């Protein structure tokens, strides 16, 4: 369900403020580390560029998924988005591989615990059956 433009405006403003705050924090961290300073105008410009680039990324990701006749944006879409920056693409691919490995581990753990749970419940029912025979 799409939000009306009236509802989106406060969300957009909150996101812009969050980006501005984050950029300001990063600039302050860099300023302290490198012993330089950033003007308020520079921080505002970096924030605006960052926010606009994120909007562009969002639209591109949506188009990639739509082109693939999907309604869900996948990691492959993100990799495609980052294809022009080798270092970013390598970083995203590395993170993707880590996430996939963690997901596989979690599935294996769930599978093992479900198997163990089934064996225990089968054993419990066997014990219950044997107890029924004793009582009778």
From TrEMBL:
Region (Disordered): 89-136
Swiss-Prot/TrEMBL keywords: Cell cycle, Cell division, Centromere, Chromosome, DNA damage, DNA repair, DNA-binding, Kinetochore, Mitosis, Nucleus
InterPro entries on file: CENP-S/Mhf1, Histone-fold
Family annotation (SUPFAM superfamilies): Histone-fold
The keyword Thylakoid is annotated on this UniProt entry: no
Subcellular location(s) of the protein: Chromosome, Centromere, Kinetochore; Nucleus
CDD domains: HFD_CENP-S
GO BP terms in the entry: cell division; DNA repair; replication fork processing; resolution of meiotic recombination intermediates
Gene Ontology CC terms: FANCM-MHF complex; kinetochore
Keyword DNA damage: yes
Gene Ontology terms, MF aspect: chromatin binding; DNA binding; protein heterodimerization activity
PANTHER family xrefs: CENTROMERE PROTEIN S (PTHR22980:SF0), CORTISTATIN (PTHR22980)
Family according to the record: Belongs to the TAF9 family. CENP-S/MHF1 subfamily.
Protein name as catalogued: Centromere protein S
Annotated organism of origin: Eleutherodactylus coqui
């Amino acid at each position: 369900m799409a939000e009306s433009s009236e509802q989106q405006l406060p969300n957009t403003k909150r996101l812009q403020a969050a980006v501005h705050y984050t950029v300001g924090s990063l600039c302050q961290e860099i300023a302290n580390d490198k012993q330089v300073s950033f003007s308020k105008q520079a921080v505002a410009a970096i924030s605006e560029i960052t926010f606009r680039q994120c909007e562009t990324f969002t639209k591109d990701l949506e188009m990639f998924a739509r082109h693939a006749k999907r309604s869900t944006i996948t990691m492959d879409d993100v990799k495609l988005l980052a294809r022009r920056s080798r270092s970013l693409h390598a970083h995203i691919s590395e993170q993707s591989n880590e996430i996939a490995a963690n997901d596989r581990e979690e599935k294996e753990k769930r599978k093992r615990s479900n198997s163990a749970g089934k064996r225990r419940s089968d054993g419990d029912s066997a014990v219950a059956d044997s107890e029924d025979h004793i009582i009778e």
